[in-house]
Design a protein that fits this description.
Number of helices: 20
Radius of gyration: 32 Å
Strand content: 5-15%
Oligomer: single chain
Helix content: 40-55%
Strand order of the largest sheet: 2-1-3-4
Length: 519
């Protein structure tokens, strides 16, 4: 049998059930029962009340590939303390022919064992709920007395070890007053953070100050003496470091200087940034905007060289126009079943080429299996001695080691199957190209470069070898809107040749992108 080990501890429960102790007992159990361990999954400081645990979810996903027979845990409560989660994930494992075993709780497989397992899970859940209630009661009592309840301590405070009450830290509290006054005097959050860092100051966890940490400091009502726990707010519950008047004045300035949410997205909205090139000079074409007399905003892509007035005369083109053309070309590919099938073949070839170790291991395994068969044939023919036995044992041992290595390699680097790749491409057809995020996803995954000439557009996609050229005459048959472009200038083929060099790794790019989107 082959198996994996799952070990976990929660941050409030770290006694003898340490990760190392759990793994040690699980390995001993596996050895005693003849189970070959392929991998160990561990989640540190994660509660079993939630199934949102990284290695736990990865283990469940890996079980679908049926590379192991059992999952070994130190106790069942390491797997889950929630009856619903336990039943749900055990059902998944059963469908994948994977059994859950406890190294320290011998549970029979008869009906009595089912009842025993239910009782163990129920007791673990009861303990978990009871513990949470006790912790919540204790923290509520602390909050009623305005005591420290854990968490990151704000700069400027320290905790009295005997009473657990907040006290002003005379060493760091001047930093808080300085930050508030500096911001009110017109300094930016970045300038304040840079100044503190240059002088060697650090926050309460020893890290440099950032814009985000300064922003939180400037809006923390703790500094005017307000104690808060959940929905419980106690005015004057902690010593105040600054006055309410200073705090209110700072909030007013924050409100006035706060930028519109969309202002940070202007650069991101130009989806062809770093992908669109000028057909005249080969420079990037970047986004810029302008406002008409009627206050309507127009967005364009413009050649960097032309923008800097350094000799290129390429005209700017409307953002929506060129992006729509690119999206349309991608959709043509997605609806071409033959092209997708060919792409899947290339991806499968690339995957086999990318994993150099797995084919070698499988080749050696075939050789070892052949050697074992030869030895067995020799034994059947009456050739049996100490050398024969020793050689057969060596081959059997090597076969087991190779099978473990192959399983490990497949777990570490799973191969995408053709049907999953097909499913991925077909699902991309469902993307709504009127939505910004869906348009961005298509362009980022499929477009390597777009070269804009005055009479045509050259596309270098990640799914094709070489370039695809579309003339404006062809585009006019699909859309009459091409007034932004002037018909002039001769073809610029040298730059295209250079771009093809960048396309050598396009297949592996698609694999990675596809894998991220699919899983």
């Amino acid at each position: 049998m082959t198996g994996v080990i799952y070990a976990r501890y929660s941050s409030d429960h770290q006694r003898e059930e340490s990760i190392e102790g759990q793994i040690r007992e699980c390995e001993a159990y596996a050895k005693k029962n003849g189970i070959r361990v392929l991998k160990v999954y561990t989640d540190r400081a994660f509660s079993a009340k939630s199934d949102n645990r990284p290695d736990f979810q990865k283990m469940i996903t890996d079980s679908h590939r049926k590379l192991f027979d059992v999952i070994i845990v130190w106790k069942l409560d390491r797997f889950s303390r929630d009856r619903y989660h336990m039943a749900h994930y055990k059902h998944i494992l059963q469908k994948n022919n994977v059994q859950l075993l406890s190294a320290t709780e011998p549970i029979p497989t008869d009906p009595a064992g089912i009842m025993m397992e239910s009782m163990l899970v129920g007791m673990a859940e009861y303990y978990s709920v009871e513990l949470a209630q006790k912790i919540n009661r204790g923290m509520t009592e602390n909050a009623l007395k305005c005591k420290y309840n854990g968490g990151t301590l704000p700069v400027g405070y320290k905790i009295n070890k005997q009473t657990r009450l907040y006290e002003i830290d005379t060493t760091t509290s001047p930093i808080v007053r300085e930050v508030y006054n500096a911001y009110l005097d017109g300094k930016t959050m970045k300038q304040i953070a840079d100044n503190l860092n240059e002088r060697g100051y650090r926050n309460t966890i020893g890290r440099k100050f950032s814009i985000d940490s300064i922003s939180r400091m400037l809006q923390n009502r703790h500094y005017i003496g307000e104690y808060k726990y959940k929905d419980m707010i106690t005015p004057n519950g902690v010593p105040a470091i600054i006055s309410p008047e200073l705090f209110d004045a700072v909030q007013e300035r924050i409100s006035k200087t706060k930028k519109a949410p969309s202002s940070h997205k202007a650069v991101d909205d130009y989806l062809l940034t770093t992908k669109l090139y000028c057909g005249h000079c080969g420079s990037f074409m970047v986004g810029e905007s302008g406002t008409s007399n009627s206050n309507r905003i127009y967005r364009y892509y413009k050649c960097v060289t032309a923008k800097r007035r350094k000799g290129c005369h390429k005209k700017a083109v409307r953002k929506e126009w060129i992006e729509d053309i690119v999206i349309n070309e991608i959709r043509k590919f997605l609806y071409d079943d033959e092209a997708i099938d060919e792409m899947i073949k290339l991806v499968m070839q690339a995957q086999r080429q990318e994993n150099k170790k797995l084919p070698l291991l499988k080749k050696e395994l075939r050789s070892v299996e052949k050697g074992i068969n030869n030895m067995l044939n020799a034994i059947q023919d009456g050739i049996y001695n100490s050398s024969t036995k020793r050689r057969l044992d060596e081959l059997e041992e090597r076969k087991e080691a190779l099978e473990t290595e192959i399983a490990n390699e497949q777990l570490i680097k799973p191969l995408l199957e053709p049907k999953k790749l097909k499913f991925y491409f077909i699902n991309l057809r469902k993307l709504d190209t009127t939505k910004l995020e869906d348009r961005r996803s298509l362009i980022n995954n499929f477009v390597n470069a777009v070269v804009l000439h005055d009479d045509r557009i050259d596309f270098v996609f990640n799914y094709q070898d070489g370039t695809k050229t579309v003339t404006f005459e062809e585009l006019k048959e699909e859309s009459a809107d091409s007034s932004d472009l002037l018909v002039s200038a001769r073809p610029y083929r040298v730059f295209i040749t250079n771009l093809n060099v960048r396309n050598e790794h396009s297949i592996s790019f698609i694999i990675k992108s596809g894998f991220l989107l699919m899983f």
